[in-house]
Design a protein that fits this description.
Elements (H helix, E strand, L loop, with lengths): L11 E4 L13 E6 L3 H5 L4 E6 L2 E5 L7 E6 L2 E5 L16 H9 L8 H6 L5
Antiparallel strand pairs: 1-2, 2-6, 3-4, 4-5, 5-6
Length: about 120
């Protein structure tokens, strides 16, 4: 997947807890992808359908499980299900020392430690 992706932009990937919010255990990843051109970006998929309200249903080339893409200007939200989880997310602001560190690193990991400690994630 490379067409329409802004290679110098910031990418975010969230892994959601399948036990919270009714997620299927195989549908718990949401990606926010920086793009240069929406039409070019969705052309990375073998089949697409406009679902309305800026949402596109897409089928990846390497599978038959549809994903949903929300058009948010220069960002695209990509996830394996639709519904109310495709509304535009709020902004996260990093402050102080954390902001300095995040700005100087290639990868930053945020984790909600309490729920992680309660669960054992197994491969």
């Amino acid at each position: 997947m490379g067409k329409g992706v802004k290679r110098d932009g910031d990418l975010a990937i969230a892994m959601l807890d399948p036990g919270e919010g009714g997620f299927d255990k195989n549908e718990t990843i949401v990606a926010i992808v920086p793009v240069t051109n929406y039409k070019n970006f969705v052309s990375n998929f073998k089949a697409t359908a406009d679902e309305g309200d800026g949402i596109t249903k897409a089928t990846p080339h390497d599978g038959d499980k549809d994903v949903y893409i929300a058009n948010w200007g220069q960002l695209r939200r990509h996830q394996p299900d639709e519904g109310d989880r495709l509304e535009e997310a709020g902004r996260h602001e990093t402050l102080g020392f954390s902001a300095k560190e995040a700005d100087s690193k290639d990868i930053v990991l945020y984790a909600n430690i309490k729920p992680c400690a309660r669960r054992r994630f197994r491969s």
